[in-house]
């Protein structure tokens, strides 16, 4: 088996090609798209979809400018799935990342990465990722992004975890009253009423002010508004409420949630989506959630770190962290372009000596910030020479500190950034976000 593997080259065994999803015709999806959806569902342990559901998926892909990189066996066993479906899938679509000051940057967002279990560790992922990152760079993307199903795969390709997320539970009996008066009014609505532009308008306001927010996939909206559950039918268990700052104003926050009966912890409310244009809306919606009777606790899987709700609970110990992990990973492709696109919190000059095993972002960059805007010049360096007074870091570490949610001075202390500590402190001050970054988009 091992000898056979060694003898067969990648190109002898596989054919790799980009595919633009063809929109379904009269609800019918072509064989190629059916095979790709099947392969992704197998890879992610998701049940087979109905033809209607496959058409929904593929329509959204086509409408989102998603492109698919697929790897096929050249000589599949005729009775195998490999004959009808790719053994490797890789999707990419444009997705904007917010800098939190109303500006944002387009990212090459990676989704749907799977490799058939029978073809693992033959370099399929590496071939797809390398090909795709070159395509992204050629198409002018300065940044790539993803959310990972495992934490150990993507660093080797230059992605760094830039934003983390927490699942938290707030126990009701000790939480209220909040230490501050909430303002405005919360009312219960049908979730489907949010689909009429209201929900997306609130999200747009959230996105504009929240560093790290990413626009959502088209397919996300029908799910969060309860129009489509996992089975493609309306989600009968989903509930919703909106917050208005005044009775005659448009909603500036909404929450969708469901009742969950668990054996071990009693009945709970689980928050599905909580979107807020400001902290007043956020606190008022929490106040509402914690006021719902016949449940012991509210579970919120996508909390900010840190979450300001802890400051205003009667008993701050009502707030428990259940789990924390990486959320958004960023991969810098063009360091000068990314660094000059974001706003900064402090003025000064730092020199960054960036190492990138794939070559895209390798170089020495002088970042000068004046009045909150950065300009970047690339410094020359002869081979092997280290720049004096520069901060040296890997491209994945650059991706990690980019949002300011991961502190550059801390990464200096643990050795991921080297050079003068004062420069790492300055970089940290420059990158410090105006308010806590928060990602509530999954892709
Ligand atoms: C993760 C997955 C895509 C890897 O595919 P693959 O074709 O076997 O990977 P490759 O052979 O190209 O290996 C590339 C590198 O990643 C490493 N790697 C691959 N899978 C890994 C994993 N699960 N954990 C840690 N490292 C992994 C390999 O060791 C190799 O390292 P190297 O190049 O430094 O030697 C595949 O196992 C898979 O489909 N998993 C299930 C779905 C999934 O988790 N997708 C990720 C969604 S975000």
Automatic annotation (TrEMBL):
Q: Which residues form the Eis-like acetyltransferase domain?
A: 212-319
Gene3D superfamilies referenced in this protein's UniProt entry, alphabetically: 3.40.630.30, SCP2 sterol-binding domain
What InterPro entries does the record tag this protein with?
A: Acetyltransf_17, Acetyltransferase_Eis, Acyl_CoA_acyltransferase, Eis_dom, SCP2_sterol-bd_dom_sf
**Pfam families xrefs:** Acetyltransf_17, Acetyltransf_9, SCP2_2
Q: Which residues form the Enhanced intracellular survival protein domain?
A: 337-438
Entry superkingdom: Bacteria
Q: What PANTHER family does the database record attribute to this sequence?
A: N-ACETYLTRANSFERASE EIS (PTHR37817)
- This chain belongs to the protein called GNAT family N-acetyltransferase
* Protein's organism: Gryllotalpicola koreensis
